[in-house]
Amino acid sequence: MQLDEIDRKLLRILQDDSRKSVQELGDAVGLSPSACHRRLRALEERRLIAGYHALLNPGALGFSMQFFIEVGLISQSEAALDAFEAAVRDIPEVLECHLMAGQSDYILRVVCRDHDDFERVHRRLSARLPGVARIHSNMSIRTVKARTGLPI
């Protein structure tokens, strides 16, 4: 997909701070507010901008623990994958779920408030997710790098 330097600069700025006004964005890339607005609309229509979100502080909200959980399924049939994926979407503590190629079928990123909360979530994963053969949990000690943006 072709992007010119103005588009790339707009996307980089928005990744760092999506609260900037169209006026501020236009000033930063050398466009009038109306021209900047048209550029943003075009980027949204081309689905290069998927949405605008607030980045919340998990620790400040009481989510002091983060886990990466590898899940192996009994079967890798399309029906088994669909059933697992539908069920995992209903667990709010699962922030991400990735279908993998390799040793595990899925890797989940899960947040919990404390050890008791993790036990509850782990039981829910084990008992309620269909077709689970094994679960291997890895606790994150500290986030070294977390970036929500892409290297544009």
From TrEMBL:
Kindly list any coiled-coil regions of this protein. none
Task: Identify the GO cellular component terms for this protein.
Answer: cytosol
Q: Mind telling me which InterPro entries this protein's record contains?
A: AsnC-type_HTH_dom (IPR000485), Dimeric_a/b-barrel (IPR011008), Tscrpt_reg_AsnC-like (IPR019888), Tscrpt_reg_AsnC/Lrp_C (IPR019887), WH-like_DNA-bd_sf (IPR036388), WH_DNA-bd_sf (IPR036390)
Which residue ranges traverse the bilayer? none
Q: Which organism is it from?
A: Paradevosia tibetensis
Gene Ontology molecular-function annotations: sequence-specific DNA binding
**Biological process GO terms, please?**
response to amino acid
Q: What is this protein called?
A: Lrp/AsnC family transcriptional regulator
Q: Pfam families, alphabetically?
A: AsnC_trans_reg, HTH_AsnC-type
* Gene3D superfamilies listed in its UniProt record: 3.30.70.920, Winged helix-like DNA-binding domain superfamily/Winged helix DNA-binding domain
Upper lineage ranks? Bacteria, Pseudomonadati, Pseudomonadota, Alphaproteobacteria, Hyphomicrobiales
Question: PROSITE patterns of this UniProt entry?
Answer: HTH_ASNC_2
Signal peptide span per the entry?
none
